[in-house]
Specification:
By secondary structure, the chain is mainly β. It has three domains: 121 residues, no CATH class; 150 residues, Lipocalin (Beta Barrel); 97 residues, Cytochrome Bc1 Complex, Chain D, domain 2, CATH 1.10.760. Helix content is 10%, strand content 36%. Strands 1, 2, 23, 24 and 25 form a five-stranded antiparallel β-sheet that branches. Strand 14 and strand 15 form a beta hairpin. The relative contact order is 0.13.
Length: 458
C-alpha cells in the first residue's frame, strides 16, 4: 500500500494498514496534545532530557534555585499520559553544572529487573566531575533511585569535528581502516556547529543524523538532515527549516514507533523563542519526504526541547524560562501509523503477478527519485554535488571501461542490487528496488551512455 499524506495536519493517516492498534488506552490523539508542566518554583530550569521504553517514560531535568542546583526525575508507566514524582536524584556533592548538554537520561537495556525498567541519568557536576544515578519505574509509574549497574556501553553518536565535518563512527570498510564516515561530505555551506549534532538508529539499522550548520565563518545557520541505510554512505543533506523566522539551535532527533524521523529544535532568540517539530518519512538513498513544520510553543520563553518515542507518537519536553512561571513543559504528540509496502500480508491463495517489463521512462524516474544524480550527475558524468567531493570520483558513464562489473542490462541491474566496493570506490546497494525497477534503471543508465557516445562519434 502506498503512503498517503493528510496535508491539513502534520500526521500521516493510514486506516487500512493491516496492523492492530496497541493494547493501551493511553495513545495520544493525533496532533499536539495539551501542554502540561512541572513547576520549578523559586528557581530556573537548566536542562531537560527524556527517554522511553514504552509504555514507560523517564523525564529528568536540572534546576537552579537559591539553595543550589539539583537534578530531578519524574516517571510514567502509561505512555506519558500521567507522571509520578518528581524525586531528587542529585545530592550536594554532585550538583549539576548550568550546561544543558551535560544532562542526559537513557534507558538501560538488559537490566536485571525486567519488570521494573531502569533508566540512567547522567550529568556533569562541579569540577567537571561526571555523575550518574539510576532509577527504576515501578508498576504504578513512581520512580525509585537505585544503585547503578556498571558496564553499560555508550550508544554510538554522530559528532562535529573542528573543521565542520559531521562524522558518524561507523564500522571500517577495510581491516585497519578508519571507521569514521563523513555525513555532510565537506559541503562548504553545511559545516556543523560544535555540540549541535544529533543522531539515531532505527530498528532497520538505518542511521539518521541532523545538525545545525552553515558556511564556516558565516552568520546564516540552518538545520540539515541526512540518512544512511548501512552507516557507510550518507545521501545528500536536506534543509529542515527552509522557512525559518529566526536562527535555529538545540536540535534533537528520534525515531517514532512507525520508523519515521521526528526532529525538534528552538527557533529564534530570546525573548522570541519557539519550539518547533518536524516529521520526516525516510527514503532509501533518495530525499526524505518532509511533512509540514509544527510549532509546539510560541510564547517567547520556550527553548531547549528534548524528545522520546511513545506508543502512537512522541513526547516532547522543553524549558519554559518565563520569570513569573518557570517550568518544564511537555506535550504528547500523536502520529498515526504509516502504511509501508510490507504493512499487510497478502491473502492466502492470492495470485502472484509476474514481473512487469522494464521501461526507460520508469528508469528515468527512479534515477531522479533515488538520488543517483547526487553522485553521478544529471547527465551521468560523475559530477553530482556529492560526487565532486568523493575520492575516487563516481564512474563517468561516457567511459565504457568504467563499468567494471559489466555494462549490459543484467550486469548493471546486479550492481544496482548489490552495490559496489572496490579500489576505494563505493556505491551503496539499492536492494529495495524490484527486479523490474533495477532493470529499468539499468536501461536509463545505458541510454545516458549511448547518448553520450552518439554525441562524441564524428
Amino acid at each position: 500500500m502506498r503512503r498517503s499524506i493528510v496535508t491539513s495536519v502534520f500526521v500521516l493517516v493510514a486506516t487500512a494498514c493491516g496492523r492492530s492498534a496497541p493494547a493501551t488506552d493511553s495513545l495520544p490523539g493525533l496532533g499536539p496534545g495539551a501542554e502540561q508542566r512541572f513547576a520549578v518554583p523559586g528557581g530556573r530550569p537548566l536542562g531537560v532530557s527524556v527517554a522511553s521504553a514504552p509504555p514507560y517514560v523517564a523525564m529528568a531535568w536540572a534546576s537552579d534555585h537559591p539553595a543550589g542546583r539539583d537534578v530531578y526525575v519524574a516517571a510514567s508507566a502509561d505512555n506519558g499520559r500521567s507522571f509520578r514524582g518528581p524525586v531528587r536524584v542529585s545530592d550536594p556533592t554532585a550538583a549539576p553544572t548550568a550546561a544543558r548538554s551535560s544532562l542526559q537520561v537513557s534507558f538501560v537495556p538488559g537490566a536485571a529487573a525486567a519488570r521494573t525498567p531502569r533508566f540512567a541519568i547522567h550529568w556533569t557536576g562541579d569540577a567537571d566531575r561526571p555523575s550518574r544515578r539510576d532509577v527504576v519505574i515501578r508498576r504504578d509509574g513512581s520512580p525509585e533511585p537505585v544503585v547503578r549497574e556498571a558496564g553499560v556501553p555508550d550508544a554510538a553518536a554522530a559528532r562535529c569535528d573542528a573543521d565542520g565535518t559531521v562524522i558518524w563512527p561507523g564500522a571500517p570498510a577495510t581491516p585497519g581502516g578508519s571507521a569514521d564516515v563523513e555525513v555532510n561530505h565537506r559541503v562548504a555551506d553545511q559545516a556543523c556547529v560544535a555540540d549541535q549534532v544529533t543522531s539515531a538508529i532505527d530498528p532497520r539499522g538505518w542511521v539518521h543524523v541532523a545538525w545545525i550548520g552553515g558556511a564556516v565563518g558565516g552568520a546564516a545557520r540552518h538545520i540539515f538532515y541526512a540518512a544512511s541505510s548501512d552507516g557507510r554512505w550518507f545521501g545528500r543533506a536536506q534543509v529542515l527549516d527552509e522557512d525559518a523566522s529566526g536562527p535555529p539551535s538545540q536540535v534533537q532527533l528520534t525515531i517514532d514507533p512507525n520508523e519515521t524521523v521526528v526532529t525538534t529544535w528552538t527557533s529564534g532568540e530570546a525573548p522570541a523563542t519557539r519550539v518547533i517539530m518536524r516529521q520526516l518519512i525516510p527514503a532509501h538513498h533518495g530525499p526524505a519526504q518532509l511533512l509540514p513544520v509544527t510549532t509546539l510553543a510560541a510564547d517567547g520563553a520556550s527553548q531547549q526541547p528534548a524528545l522520546a518515542a511513545v506508543r502512537g507518537g512522541v513526547l516532547i519536553a522543553w524549558l519554559r524560562t518565563a520569570a513569573d512561571a518557570p517550568a518544564i513543559a511537555f506535550r504528547r504528540v500523536g502520529l498515526d501509523a504509516i502504511c509501508g509496502p510490507d504493512a499487510a500480508p497478502a491473502a492466502a491463495g492470492a495470485a502472484v503477478a509476474t514481473a512487469a517489463a522494464p521501461t526507460l521512462a520508469l528508469g528515468e524516474e527512479l534515477y531522479a527519485t533515488n538520488g543517483c544524480a547526487t553522485c553521478h550527475g544529471v547527465d551521468g558524468h560523475g559530477d553530482g554535488p556529492v560526487g565532486q567531493t568523493l575520492t575516487p570520483r563516481p564512474r563517468d558513464f561516457r567511459d565504457g571501461a568504467s563499468f567494471k562489473a559489466g555494462g549490459d542490462e543484467s550486469a548493471i541491474a546486479l550492481t544496482v542490487a548489490q552495490g559496489f566496493n572496490e579500489g576505494g570506490a563505493q556505491m551503496p546497494a539499492f536492494n529495495h528496488l524490484s527486479e523490474q525497477e533495477r532493470r529499468s534503471l539499468a536501461l536509463f543508465v545505458m541510454s545516458l551512455r549511448d547518448q553520450i557516445a552518439d554525441r562524441t562519434t564524428p
